[in-house]
Design goal:
seven-stranded mixed β-sheet, 3 domains, 27% strand, 388 residues, Rossmann fold
Length: 388
């Protein structure tokens, strides 16, 4: 291994931080398959203290962590050659690159002068507290009607948490739409739409940000909420957003491009997935809530028994099995799946999202894997299996 390449690169990194010439840094080229695709770093100021802000890029979301300079440099050193094979450092005058080979047993250091002096912001520091670029406009009247903003469109202190949830949800949807080929006039069903927070936001994003012409229907059992949402949709001139007081089992869908069911309790999630598959929806998005059916079925008689005798562990295992089998059953029907956390646990403990994107290429081994899992845990059936 070229022992000079690594220390030279990190000397340049430290110099850029100390001399305020740092612009940005990226870590890329994974050594092994990983959920994180790459990492982007920039400088921010938090409470007037300079920090390196790392943005972890995943397929459907970004996660941000802030480190002081020393911690940040150590973090980058730990990542190089183990997780990532390439680090690109951009400064005001030069570009530096550290590149490992595939075995990470050799590295080279490259440098290139920029064509013109690259600007940075306040010595490379970007204010962390500046207004975040939002996917939605808080001045939309539905935010005020939902008590998230005041009459002037300013997010209230009580509405901050809810707005962050909505913004993160739309960020997740935006990432998924980059993978799914939805038509401009997409037909979308949102089961369990409640007071409509996310349903209004989704319609707003598709209509006003993406300039498409979606038809969005929200289904909710509570008629008072349905009436409230329909009245609000009219006031917002959201002509193709409608709400219906219907049980999910009663809904008949002739055409469906995207199905959403967030926090549908227990087997209601399975009903939603089944309806999406039956309608050949291009995208199915569910956030499960409660996992009673599989937990009642658990009858473990193997090495897992001593662990699952504890109720809390049995509950968590049931959640994992329920959602894992759901993903496999989606794959058996020709969907590419993702299972991930879509909001922080500080907002809700029920934060797992299952996404299916239709490919029409069923996974041939999926049902065999489901059977093996059921046998191992003594599960006689999964409700989604029956529905399919």
């Amino acid at each position: 291994m070229d022992i000079s390449a690594v220390p030279i690169f990190f000397d340049k990194l430290k110099d850029s931080l100390n001399q305020q010439t740092f612009v940005k840094l990226t870590l890329s080229r994974l050594r092994h398959p990983s959920d994180v695709k790459n990492i982007y770093a920039r400088l921010v100021s938090i409470k007037k203290q300079p920090k390196i802000q790392f943005t972890f890029r995943y397929a459907t979301r970004d996660e941000v962590k802030n480190f002081d300079f020393t911690e940040g440099v150590v973090f980058i050193q730990d990542q190089m050659g183990t997780v990532f094979l390439t680090a690109d450092l951009f400064t005001t005058d030069f570009d530096f690159s550290l590149q490992f080979n595939k075995k990470a047993d050799n590295a080279q250091f490259l440098t290139k002068k920029t064509n013109s002096k690259r600007p940075n912001t306040e010595g490379g520091i970007s204010p962390h507290d500046q207004t975040k670029k939002r996917l939605l406009t808080p001045t939309q009247p539905y935010f005020h009607a939902l008590e998230i903003t005041d009459a002037k469109g300013n997010i209230t202190s009580n509405g901050q948490k809810k707005f962050k949830q909505i913004d993160k949800y739309i960020e997740t949807i935006a990432a998924l739409l980059r993978e799914a080929d939805l038509p401009n006039d997409a037909v979308i069903a949102d089961f369990g739409s409640g007071k409509g927070y996310l349903t209004f936001a989704l319609y707003d994003y598709l209509k006003n940000n993406l300039k498409t012409t979606p038809s969005v229907s929200g289904f909710e059992l509570r008629e008072n909420l349905v009436n409230f949402c329909n009245d609000l949709a009219q006031k917002c001139y959201f002509d193709d957003l409608q709400f219906f007081a219907k049980d999910i089992n009663e809904v008949v869908l002739d055409r469906l491009d995207m199905l959403i069911a967030l926090h549908a309790c227990d087997t209601a999630t399975d009903v939603a997935i089944a309806k999406g598959i039956e309608a050949k929806a291009k995208v199915i998005i569910v956030a499960p809530c409660c996992h009673k059916q599989v937990r009642k079925e658990l009858n473990v008689k193997n090495e897992m028994q001593p662990i699952l005798k504890h109720g809390i562990l049995e509950e968590r295992q049931a959640e994992l099995l329920t959602d894992g089998i759901r993903a496999l059953l989606l794959e058996s029907k020709g969907y590419r799946t993702k299972v991930f956390e879509f909001v922080s646990t500080e907002h809700t403990p029920k934060n797992v999202m299952i996404v299916g994107i239709r490919t029409d290429k069923p996974k041939p081994t999926a049902l065999e894997q489901v059977e093996a899992i059921k046998k191992h845990y003594g599960i006689s059936y999964h409700h989604l299996e029956k529905l399919l």
